[in-house]
Task: structure prediction
Amino acid sequence: MKNEQMIQYQVRLADPAGHRYAIRLTIPRPDPAGQSLRLPAWIPGSYLIRDFARQIETLQASSGGAPVAARKTDSHTWRCAPCTGPLTVDYQVYAWDLSVRGAHFDESHAFFNGCSLFLAAVGQEAQPCLLDLCPPAHARGWQVYTSLPSAAGHPDAAPLRGFGLYQARDYDELIDHPVEIGTPQCISFEAHGAVHDLVFTGRVPNLDLERIAADAQKICAAQIELFEPASRRAPFLDGAERYVFLVTVTGDGYGGLEHRASTALITRRADLPAQGCAAPEGYVTFLGLLSHEYFHTWNVKRIKPAAFAPYDLSRPGHTELLWVFEGFTSYYDDLMLLRAGVIDEPAYLKLVGRTLDQVLRAGGRLKQSVAESSFDAWTRYYKQDENSPNALVSYYTKGSLVALGLDLEIRRQSGGARSLDDVMRLLWRRYGRDFYQGRPRGVAEDAMPALIQAATGADVTDFIARHALGREDVPLKAALARVGIELSAQPEHTRPTLDVRTQADPAGLRLATVHEHGPAHRAGLSAGDLLIAADGLRITDAAGLDRLLDARRPGERLSLHVFRRDELRQHTVRLGKPAALRHQLQRVGGGAHGTPA
Ligand SMILES: [Zn+2]
Result:
């Protein structure tokens, strides 16, 4: 197709102080019955309706210089009046969301996801697109960082990291390559011959780029070896020339969003290593996040649930399989740090113990399965409130324990000959490798037991029925013992408990969650109550409450004063035994069937 016949998006960095992008969309052959334009209601990988269209401030359509009427037909859609020539749509997008999901722009940098900026020409989503990135008027020296390929062969094709034309085979690809523009700190490395860029935006003095690149290189190489042990071909070479980690560094952020050849991450400044210093403890958290999103390059960006092949971005897409796509990814993220040699086995086992702490602490796991949690991600996991620990289970954390349990069960049944790795490779061959090469099919909702059997010979139907579709805890103690790892649990401390989560409040200590069946619940306390005194003594923070509880024993009664809204209430709580358990995993011998490591 000739360039002048392609749908084109021009992006201008129009107003840094006001955080506004100016977009010009040109549709060469609009629908003669009237062209509809639609922005996604959600962004793949983040399962919540975001209503990105609410940030479009103004929109004008024209054709051949004459205005074309455009009116909204739903929250995300505009319909233009019929016109004969090319349709031009100028619109302004407000971008002040420094998350991995949205768009952001000020005088220091610009970052955007296409879901926030690019209206789809409805009915023409399969058409190739051009993206014209214009250099900013207000700043010099800015460069472009994205995995979206340059419009090769075009006279205005963007040079590497430059402004100009980029291209996408279709709309789905256009919105799957976030873009960072500015003056970030950057380093590149190769893993099995494939280029990877690490791009850090935000102030980080003395950032140890070399150290991060060396560790990331090992992690990426280990993952490529897992999925493609023979060819060692990186997955993103099916359309992109490089993989890009776009990292935003803030004081207290954490999060990531996966894309087909890149990821957007947010991390804490304090979790990054500085030159000449020992890496901070939180560095493993950062590497785990990087590993997690990179694993998604295979698992969810190419191996997908059928519900996401293709995505319908106008409404929620329901699948019971996020325990596979997020849970398995959460299992492998830390495991790949171990296999890559970035952490040692005791450090890895500590991370598994921490996951067990998180999963087993909350009673919601006995009410909701990870399959149910996946299906209801849109309305429950992504809309958590004070009662969520009592009502929900995480398909990430429990999903990772299901993956560990499955891995150990496959190893047991196959006498150590097969593992979850074989399942991932089968999924990759059957669904992932050719996903963007004309074979876009996804995993059916009920396919996992048969796929695991096909990959390994192991029958895990009952295991999945109990622990993924059902709500039973994953029986890890005996399974870990078989591979030489002892699992034990001790109380976190000896202090008696109210069994609540609290949050700091200038007026006292706020009860954030009251765990069901715990002492506070039985005494009639509620989430939201403001604790101001215990046994007639003022409580101002969690440490003060802990000191008071340290002097008490389980079974004793404690008088509490709380405000519920503006009403003072008195409750008598019978203190409980320490509820929180700390799980420890320790190697005590060699395993009969080999360990996941
Ligand atoms: Zn994920």
Notes: The mean pLDDT is 96. The CA atoms of residues 99 and 266 lie 7 Å apart. The pocket of zinc ion is lined by residues 292, 296, 326, 329 (CB under 6 Å). The chain has 16 helices and 28 strands.
